[in-house]
Design a protein that fits this description.
By secondary structure, this protein is α/β, with parallel strands linked by helices. About 55% of the residues lie in helices and about 10% in strands. The chain has two domains: about 180 residues, Rossmann fold (3-Layer(aba) Sandwich), CATH 3.40.50.720; about 30 residues. About 35% of the residues are buried.
């Protein structure tokens, strides 16, 4: 019995090792990535550019787009995109089509996201949930739907960056809710577009050092959330509860 378990664990470890050693082959196909100002999006855009992909990178800020363009080759093109603005999404979808033309879009990486306020649910108003869901769930859905015809043209793939917190609701706030929603969208989309040759995958990062996971930012937003609570609510919870949350 123990021998079978050991062999099974060894087999699983070998498969995991081989999977992690896989690398993406060089290509000149088109890939569109959201959230390239910093973090995973920026690193991925530069890595794919180095491998010869024709990267179409969207940034939220002009400074983010300018900095990325300076570090990349002439193959990489940047544009500004607010994924929560339907007009911005439609404009960028047309921009992408002018680049890919008949080749279509090989890959879409929905990477843009925010952490929002992570704290006790009773402390958070509807607006806090709405902002995070708008960026992390509805935004990627809108971008995907706008670019789906180009993805079908190339029989491409959609990569949605979710989180381990898209499987385990470890804290309050809109972040876990938004990532659960994006995973559900990915599962339903995968089924609906499979017959058209489009693949859908999710990536569930753990805790990496990016602007989204900055402990300082998370603590500052929690403190701001505490400060806006009515005095009676603060007295009910007490400073000790706030310290425990931090």
């Amino acid at each position: 019995m123990w021998l079978l378990l050991l062999l099974g664990a060894l087999f699983w470890a070998v498969l995991w090792f081989l999977r992690d050693r896989q690398s993406l082959p060089a290509s000149d196909a088109f890939v569109f990535i959201t959230g390239c100002d910093s973090g995973f999006g920026r690193l991925l855009a530069l890595r794919l550019d180095q491998r010869g992909f024709r990267v179409l990178a969207s940034c939220l800020t002009p400074s983010g787009a300018e900095n990325l363009q300076q570090m990349a080759s002439s193959r990489l093109h940047t544009t500004l995109l607010d994924i929560t603005d339907p007009q911005s999404v439609q404009r960028v979808a047309k921009w992408v089509e002018t680049h890919v033309r008949e080749a279509g879009l090989f890959g879409l990486v929905n990477n843009a996201g925010v952490a929002g306020i992570i704290g006790p649910t009773p402390w958070l108003p509807w607006d806090d949930f709405h902002r995070v869901l708008n960026v992390n769930t509805l935004g990627p859905i809108g971008v995907t739907l706008a670019l789906l015809p180009l993805l079908q043209r190339a029989r491409g793939r959609v990569i949605n960056i979710t989180s381990v917190l898209g499987r385990l609701a470890a804290n309050g706030g809109g972040y876990c809710v938004s990532k659960f929603g994006l995973e559900a969208f990915s599962d339903s989309l995968r089924r609906d577009v499979a017959s058209f040759g489009v693949q859908v995958s999710i990536v569930e990062p753990g805790f990496f050092r990016t602007p989204v996971t900055s402990l300082e930012n998370l603590e500052n937003t929690l403190q701001a959330c505490w400060a806006r609570l009515p005095p009676a609510t603060q007295a009910h919870y007490g400073e000790a509860f706030l310290t425990k949350c931090e």
